[in-house]
Amino acid sequence: MPLILGIETSCDETGAGLVRDGVLLGDALASSVDEHARFGGVVPEIAARAHLEAVRPIVQRAVDAAGVRFADIDAVAVTAGPGLATAVQVGLAAGKAYALALGVPLYGVHHLAGHAAVDVLEHGPLPARCVALIVSGGHTSILLLGDLARDPIVHLGDTVDDAAGEAFDKVARLLGLPYPGGPVIDRIARDGDPAAIDFPRPMTGPKDPPYGFSFSGLKTAVARWVERHEGPLPVADVAASFQEAVADTLTRKALRACAEHGADTLLMVGGVAANSRVRALAEERCRAAGVTLRVPSIRLCTDNGAMIAAVGDLVVRAGAPAADLSLGAQPSAVL
Ligand code: KG4
Ligand code: ZN
Fold this sequence. Notes:
Layout: E1 3-8, E2 13-20, E3 23-31, H1 33-36, H2 44-66, E4 75-81, H3 85-102, E5 106-110, H4 111-123, E6 130-135, E7 140-145, E8 154-158, H5 164-174, H6 181-189, H7 216-228, H8 235-260, E9 265-269, H9 276-289, E10 292-294, H10 298-301, H11 306-317
Parallel strand pairs: 1-4, 4-5, 6-9, 9-10
Antiparallel strand pairs: 1-2, 2-3, 6-7, 7-8
Helix pairs in contact: 2-3, 4-11, 5-6, 5-7, 5-8, 6-8, 8-9
Bound molecules: 5'-O-[(R)-(carboxyoxy)(hydroxy)phosphoryl]adenosine and zinc ion.
Keywords: Acyltransferase, Cytoplasm, Iron, Metal-binding, Transferase, tRNA processing
Protein name: tRNA N6-adenosine threonylcarbamoyltransferase
EC number: 2.3.1.234
């Protein structure tokens, strides 16, 4: 069975992983998240420079962790988009260099296909049809997935403004909490009342796009509430109520997509899938609807190289055509 090297550099994580026949042999990850912290979000130039420095050692570490040799690698898979253009370019250049040096084929991978395919490494093959809720700092999408190696990804809906993770980060900032805000809000919300404040569930009206999201309005609603509040801020209640609004909106729409598209499996991935309330509500609603919920372990939920190798593995085994060295970054394209 072919051995695939996967490389991911679309945002602020530099990842490499080695996969053979649906099995993750080893991976390595570096993050520039700390360098972005003081800006409150990812700065593309800083991310690209960090990838440049990290990509070679990270690939080496992944190869060592997998206990393989470079000469054993049969194909290189690399994220071609969507993502930050300069960051994607660094991974592409590295992927091309490895493919050329090793004399093996190169495959451009859709980053979102990677988020979905990574689950195969832990829970086995995906069903022929499933809905994926991809919720991270960069994306909030509901996708309809068929065969990841052959079928195009169908975008049922995306956010029209902020991603869910971005909303967590921005709300944390306005509550005076550190970046990245998601894990901090998750922790603080445990001591709060999710019903304390009735924040809006944006884009859930009868005329709204059924699978669209808008989180910037929710963030503004939190900001207004905080501005108007007198006396000590009940931070835990604000965090819990905001988190409840996000979890409710995400899971409601994801389950609607399952029902309307005849999918009996929901895949939930991305940094926000690590959120304890999002997970609990998804479990509760999936159980009630008879839908199987699949969530990769938190380590694989966020950006990593294993997920790109996982797509490469499916694509190579399906006999799909390789890319050539003209493969370019497709920052916003649906590949
Ligand atoms: O998938 P990821 O590591 O990177 C990309 O954006 O692609 O996602 C990072 C995002 C950040 O916005 C972070 O605040 C959020 O995921 N996040 C969480 C939690 N852990 C990470 N949001 C809510 N609850 C969490 N436990
Ligand atoms: Zn991602």
